[in-house]
Amino acid sequence: SLFGMEWLLEEDRLQMKQVSEMPMKKHTKREVVKAVARLVYAPFPLHLPNVMAARILIARIWKDKSDWDEVISPARQKETLQVLNSLHQSSELSVPRKVIPEPGRPYQIHVMTDASEEALASAALVYQCDGETAVCNLAAAAGKVVAPKPKRTIPELELAAALQGRRIARKFAADGGRPPEQTVLWMDSMIVLSEATSEAKLNKYVSRRVDEIMGGDTGPPQLAHCPSQHNIADGPTRSLLHHQTDWDSWLKGPDFIRRNVSGKWPRFSPRLQRNLSVEEQEKANEREQTRAEAE
Predict the structure, then answer these.
(1) What does the pLDDT look like over 119-135, one tens digit per residue?
(2) Using CA atoms, how far apart are residues 290 and 37, in angstroms rounded to an integer?
(3) In this predicted structure, what is the pLDDT of residue 122?
(4) What pTM was estimated for this model as a whole?
(5) What is the pLDDT of residue 272?
(6) How far is Cα 280 from Cα 273, in angstroms, rounded to an integer?
(7) Within a 13 Å sphere around the CA of 242, how many CA atoms are in the beta-carbon half?
(8) Which of 24, 22, 23, 26 is nearest to 69 (CA)?
(9) pLDDT category, 73, cuts 50, 70, 90?
(10) Whole-angstrom distance, CA of residue 232 vs CA of residue 259
(11) Which of 33, 70, 141, 225 is the Cys-Cys partner for 45 at CB 3.0 to 4.6 Å?
């Protein structure tokens, strides 16, 4: 094992190493932080949704302003047990050891970003397709708990998440030794999408971040809208527990990416219902386009 990961030789996959449970004497802030700290470290963000739930829990306990050796509230105790159980279940997860594309094979990076009042997160997927079969795997991810001060709006946090995702994609491309043929940045914030494509003058806070998102040696990424139900970065920002997370989508990407062999990506319309499936969204988009052409 290395850095909390075990190498499954026969399958050539990496798996989280099982950590023995450490019973807490009392549910104090000190004991909770100690218990969580033993379980959240991992060099590869395999179980980021579980890790973010733990980080958000610690932030909530901090906001309660309890002393280090003071017993936390019953509600926080229940939340702590749920989070610790989720972290222990991380040992069930595994990913391919090698996600860097083979030399000479084109690949794409698809980054999904999201933010809430408590956290922001981004996940980068490596997608390869030969026209008949598609392979998509989680390659990198990052999350951050929102600081209480200064107070930021949701659009500002969504912009920060998009910037975090862009940096992840750029770092992966640099480490891989060659740029992707395409980088797609998916998000559900129409405000950020509008700011990133606007020709109007933006304030300095927004302008500097948009410039970094759209800049770089590999050219600007393709920006795309993605409803929350298809956005794998949505879960880590909402403190979802292990059993509430769609791990198949987290590790392999949402269906509309990993099962796509055409290389053409759906255009989600924000005006349509957010609970539509990908296929229903595409049909609705076609009807909208036909109606617009007729007019």
Answers:
(1) 999 999 999 887 788 88
(2) 55
(3) 96
(4) 0.85
(5) 39
(6) 10
(7) 16
(8) 26
(9) very high
(10) 15
(11) 141
Which tokens sit at 259?
């099962």
Average pLDDT over residues 274-293: 51
Write the DSSP assignment of the chain as a string of letters.
Answer: -BTTEEEETTTTEEEEPP------SS-BHHHHHHHHHHHH--SS-TTHHHHHHHHHHHHHHHHTT--TTSBPPHHHHHHHHHHHHHHHGGGG-EEES--SPPTT---EEEEEEEE-SSEEEEEEEEEEE-SS-EEEEEEEEEEEEPPSSS---HHHHHHHHHHHHHHHHHHHHHHHTS--SEEEEEES-HHHHHHHH--S---HHHHHHHHHHH-STT-PPEEEE--GGG-TTTGGGTT--GGGS-HHHHHH--HHHHT--SSPPP---TTS-TT--HHHHHHHHHHHHHHHHH-
Show the tokens assigned to 23. Answer: 């019973």
Encoded tokens for 44: 């590869």
Predicted confidence (pLDDT) per residue in 192-233, tens digit: 998 988 888 889 999 999 999 998 776 789 999 998 889 999
